[in-house]
Q: What sequence folds into this?
C-alpha cells in the first residue's frame, strides 16, 4: 500500500480518535465532517481497494510500515 500524505494521515488519526479503527461508513464520514469541519476524503471513497461494501470502507493503518520494520529486527 502506498504511503499516505499528511492530510490523509490526519484524517485516519481523527477517525481513529473517534473510535473508527478498521472500517468507516459514509454516514460516519459525514458525521466527522459536520463535527470537525473536515473535507470529504475522496482518496478513500474513490479508491476501490479501500471499499468493502456499499458505503463502507476500510481505514488504512498508520503503523503498518513501523511494524514491519520492527518485525524484521
A:
Amino acid at each position: 500500500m502506498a504511503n499516505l500524505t499528511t492530510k490523509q494521515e490526519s484524517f485516519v488519526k481523527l477517525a481513529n480518535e473517534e473510535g473508527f479503527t478498521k472500517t468507516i461508513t459514509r454516514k460516519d464520514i459525514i458525521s466527522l465532517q459536520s463535527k470537525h469541519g473536515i473535507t470529504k476524503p475522496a482518496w478513500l471513497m474513490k479508491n476501490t481497494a479501500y471499499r468493502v461494501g456499499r458505503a463502507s470502507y476500510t481505514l488504512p493503518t498508520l503503523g503498518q510500515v513501523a511494524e514491519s520494520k520492527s518485525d524484521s529486527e
